[in-house]
Every structure is written in C-alpha cells, then in structure tokens.
Design a protein that fits this description.
Layout: E1 2-7, E2 10-13, E3 18-25, E4 34-39, E5 46-51, E6 57-59, E7 67-72, E8 77-82, E9 91-96, E10 106-107, E11 112-117
Length: 118
C-alpha cells in the first residue's frame, strides 16, 4: 500500500503562491493516478486535483486555472503549484491514490497546512 508524506505548506497572503510536494513510498507508484485533497476546518475532505499515470490532469472548479498538478515518477513525487491563493484555500492538504467514489488506495499522511491571510 502506498504511503504519502506531504510538505510545502505555510502561511501566505492572498494572491500569493505555494508549491506543495507529495512524496510516495511503495511499489508501482508510476502506474497509479494520484490526487490532491484538502480539508478545511469543519468540512469534508475534497479531491481538488488529479493526475493520471500518463499525465492527464483534472481539477475541481474551485481551483481550476489557479492550481497545477504535476508528477515526477523518477522521484515518486507529485506536486501542486498553487497561484493566486485565496483565504478560502485555507485547509490541510493531503495526497493519495483515488479509487472509486471516495475510496483511496493508500494511507493518509499527516497533510500540510496551508493558511491564506486576507
């Protein structure tokens, strides 16, 4: 089972940018789709960006045009470049292997906190 370690979060002003990293351990990382999720206080964890094994990407409407997901299979790492950050982007960000529905194929890491001040 894949395990993930997220990093790169922090405190940033509205309009700023951050780049998150997701390091995966486990076999066959390169054949799986990987997604970024986020969970704001008191809300459910939502999938916001996804990248297939072949590099095809998709995004939630809330981040489309501002966030870019990418992967480096040689490093078993997925990235999330976040631009034009808004206070509503404040959340803990996680990565995992998405499966059907809300099911995931890996263990949840501790996530990385992103706080956007207005």
């Amino acid at each position: 089972q894949l395990q993930f370690v997220e990093s790169g979060g922090g405190l940033v002003q509205a309009g700023g940018s951050l780049r998150l990293s997701c390091a995966a351990s486990g076999s066959a990382f390169n054949i799986y789709s990987i997604a970024w999720y986020r969970q704001a206080p008191g809300k459910q964890r939502d999938l916001i960006a996804r990248i297939s094994s072949g590099g095809r990407t998709s995004y939630a409407d809330s981040v489309k045009g501002r966030f870019t997901i990418s992967r480096d299979n040689a490093k078993n790492t997925v990235y999330l470049q976040m631009l034009s950050l808004k206070p509503e982007d404040t959340a803990v960000y996680y990565c995992n292997r998405p499966m059907t529905g809300s099911t995931v194929g890996g263990s949840w890491g501790q996530g990385t906190q992103v706080t956007v001040s207005s």
